Amino acid sequence: MYEVEVWGIAVDPINQSPIVVLRNRENPREVLPIWIGPPEASGIMMVLNDMKFERPLTYELIKSLLSALGGEVERVEITDLKDGTFYATIYLRTPEGEVKEIDSRPSDAINIALRTGAPIYVADHVMEQSKVVIDEKFVLPNPDGSGEGKSEPQEEEQKSTPPPKGEKKKEEQDEEFKRWLENLKPEDFQKFGSSE
Questions:
Q1: What's the whole-model pTM score?
Q2: Fold of 2-191
Q3: Average pLDDT, stretch 113-139?
Q4: What are the φ/ψ torsions at residue 144 (nearest 5 degrees)?
């Protein structure tokens, strides 16, 4: 199993469909794009942009229901890819300690994992079959600060007060993601599957 993180949301240049891009935590050069629906993409973007709403939306409601019933999301896994469609499983621990496997679309599983803090994994055969290996020049250090650094030269930073550490890392990741998207060709988007 590969542990992954959500790197961002891209848009397919051919049909304008949203794509969630998952990045391998151990090797940030390996990413897994999965086509998802617009509502699910919006849900992911809300978490990535730390947006809050006065009333709970669907995924916040699911999180509240799980909490009220004493359930805990242990992890989610992207388990398979069949006929161009990805499959996922949510592993839910009951108050009695039993682990239930819940079949899910990857887009819903990812949304729930982001809100509950559960780790996201991808089965080995799915990652090996569908990953994209990005050019070394786009790789930043891993989120924990380890791993390889960016190999392209950095522009001189302005003398203003630097942003907080977490904010700066987010800006660098956003820039890295934009550069990666700019270098993709339309045919790159046609070889992957969907979450539907």
A1: 0.74
A2: Bifunctional nuclease domain (3.10.690)
A3: 87
A4: -85, 5
